[in-house]
Amino acid sequence: MKNPLALIVDDEPDILELLSITLGRMRVDTKEAATLQEARQLLEDTPFDMCLTDLRLPDGDGIELVKHIQQVKPNLPVAVITAHGNMQTAIEAMKAGAFDFLSKPIDLNTLRDLVKNALHLQPPAPTTKESDIPTGSPRLIGSSSRMSALRQTIAKVSRSQAPIHITGESGTGKELVARLIHALGPRKEGPFVPVNCGAIPGELMESEFFGHKKGSFTGAIADKPGLFQTADGGTLFLDEVADLPLTMQVKLLRAIQERAVRPVGASKEIAVNVRIVSATHKDLAELVNAGQFRQDLFYRINVISVTTPSLRDRIEDIPELAQYILKKLSERHHVDEPKLTASAINGLKKYAFPGNIRELENILERALTLADGHEIEIEDLQLPDSPMEVVDPAALAMITPGKRGDIPLDMYLEKIERDAVLEALEFCRWNKTQAARKLGISFRAMRYKLQKLGLE
Ligand SMILES: Nc1ncnc2c1ncn2[C@@H]1O[C@H](COP(=O)(O)OP(=O)(O)OP(=O)(O)O)[C@@H](O)[C@H]1O
Question: Which of 34, 96, 185, 327 is the most buried (most CB within 10 A)?
């Protein structure tokens, strides 16, 4: 089999030599160019598998070459070599289409990882096809133009190593998108490690992220690897990144920039090779303006941004999504898959879905238990008239468990749910994570309930 071929562009002969020897040992052949002009010429008549370019070249800027490659060979993975600590240009290059960067002085392990990643990159797909998605990965349902555009973005960004920030309302599929980006990229054999930044108690945060040495604090009975080490070779998904306290934001930025972490109580740093994907339903730029999120970290994690559309913005996807969810639910509950009547579908299309697809899942799960027969009627959906309306507190106070009287079932159940949630929150001094645990529900489900009940 023929060796892969890399184009290496630098005007420093020592660096070219270092690159060609290292790549040669990995059985990757190289062709060298010392200027932009030479690189452009070689690209015209040689089919390369990857390109590695310095940013400062005698006749121009390496970013120009990145842009040129995006135009003439958009499928060719290109990485840039930057001066030490020059994160700004590294970010600029990734925004222009570079899949990764390497800082000087060149660390050979990082170089080898980068080359392996480049050569593993899948042939590009204009859209993510079912066949590209490894079995067991979640599916992204919806044929609307918004979803087709999202699929194309996922296919494109999954090939890059650049940090991705996903924004979108609650329940719109941000974690699902993060999982797909991982599953379609060169790190798919590595771990995908999701972490809910809002759910880790402040005092444990450093040790959770970076690990700790035995005896470094009371309760540290053994060495423990942190999330960065667990995600080594794969993707670390920072969900609800806006909830990170400022002190932790500084430490995180350092770990991302240095590509190394120091476990609590350890004297040495450990190198980690992790791709960062983050998400939040909050407006990070606004939090930066308000001084609640560090601008430097914002720039570092938001190199490429992806937005998940709300369900209201893609109503046409509701029938397909609803049927897909019903199929999953019926399999899980071992019942026949029911069909939605036309009026049920109409009802769903008119509903505002503040909790998006997660709310659709909850509505359908409840409907599946309520419906008798093979059809789900609009009544089985129990759609609230005004989803986010906060119920009159005086009316709610009249409701006591066990005495429903003439009170509509929905309102009655909501009151009981609200009381249970409030009781747990008060018991746990409004610590949502502990309250969720006490109620036996996930943190996500808790957040959804708080929003639904107007308690946030
Ligand atoms: N396009 C889609 N097709 C199929 N299922 C979807 C789609 N989008 C979201 N889901 C499902 O909806 C649920 C919520 O998605 P997910 O947890 O990814 O949302 P999220 O935006 O990360 O929510 P949050 O902001 O609350 O963390 C999951 O069960 C997910 O599988």
Answer: 185
